[in-house]
Amino acid sequence: MMHLSEPLRQYADEQCSAREAQRQAEFIAFGPIVFQVSRLMVKWGILELLRDEALTSDEIAQRVGISPYAAKCLLEASLTIGSVLVEPETGRYSISKTGWFLLNDPATRVNLDFNHDVNYLGMYDLEAALREGRPAGLRRLGDWPTVYEGLSRLPEDARRSWFAFDHFYSDSSFDDALLLVFANRPRTLMDVGGNTGRWAMQCVAHDKEVEVTIVDLPQQLELMRQQTSGKEGADRIRGHAANLLDEACLLPADRHWDAIWMSQFLDCFSEEQITSILRRAARVMDNDSRLYIMETLWDRQRFEPAAFCLTQVSLYFTAIANGNSKMYHSDDLIALIEKAGLEVEEIVDGLGQGHSIIKVKRS
Questions:
Q1: N or C, which end of the chain is more exposed by having fewer CB within 10 Å?
Q2: Radius of gyration of the chain (CA)
Q3: Domains along the chain with CATH numbers
């Protein structure tokens, strides 16, 4: 039986009439145009203007500094997209509920920038990526085997949007996660895939005795050192360079680990690679160690739009990031944990922007 949270049970039944389904199909067919029109409505400040007052297309053209033709094209398309409304008697446009979310919802704004700056061009190569198991669209950003080797060298807009996307979803869960991870006051914590050290800094600020080791690629550790340099508690953070795609690369075993932390990390790997990484984690754990895996599991979401976003983000991993990973269903991740010789002790849902923490111990 496939696990689905209660709001996602709608996926088991038809939700649309035939006419609604036809409209949805056309919306999909014109998806790239819908996206770019909506992005420009935000970027050029048109939705912001319409939030405050109803305006004609000529008034909008004058205020935004675009031609009457450009204004009419964007407004008429947005009308049928559903982000604006029109008064037939006056021809004045105003913002709709959908337009309000495009303009004001933080998650939507982060997703909009991420999809334009990181994903948009590369998605043209999605078919090749799926067939060949490689990030065929990454060439639009740079020449690296995976996006992770190139994070520090991405084009500026792509780099800014990538980190904004990554931090938005992880940072919202940190407060809840700290309470869970530090319930037993770990003295040693290994942060696997620690990126720029944001979680590590949260840990050393939360507990004045904990020592954190970040395991990541050398170039990521350099970014981490730049970000944490001179900050209080940074002296209790050290780096351990490792490329965990190399199965011969082991996790550090020079001390007992009270806690091992993997946040938004395992979704960067294929199922085979995850099993290998978890087996290496099991090798450095004892009966008192706990592994905390924080992921946005698409099947455990409280709200349906979150599940929609996560299943779409899976294709970013396919076309851009690495060609073989995704946002996982909890059943699949649990099976990999057990295959690695570990056991799920507890799952806590509903942290921040839809995160879950899987607490794991040795079998």
A1: N
A2: 23
A3: 6-104 (1.10.10.10), 172-300+325-362 (3.40.50.150)
What pLDDT, on the 0 to 100 scale, is given for residue 133?
96
CA distance 165 to 188: 29
| Contact call for residues 117 and 154 (beta carbons, < 8 A) | no
Nearest alpha carbon to residue 330 among 344, 316, 319: 344
Q: Cβ atoms within 10 A of the Cβ of 344, count?
A: 16
User: Whose structure tokens read 């509903």?
Assistant: 350
> Quick one: pLDDT at residue 171?
78
- Measured between alpha carbons, how far is 1 from 9 in angstroms, rounded to an integer? 13
Return the DSSP state at 211: E
DSSP state of 196: T
Q: How far, rounded to the nearest angstrom, does the alpha carbon of residue 328 sit from its chain's CA centroid?
A: 12
Where the chain has pLDDT below 70, the residues are: none
325 and 317 in contact (C-beta within 8 Å)?
Answer: yes
pLDDT at residue number 1: 84
Give the rounded percent of residues in the chain with a pLDDT score beyond 70: 100
Token pair 């203007």 in the structure block, residue: 49
Query: 337 burial class (0-12, 13-18, 19+ CB within 10 angstroms)?
Result: buried
CB 247 within 8 A of CB 276: yes
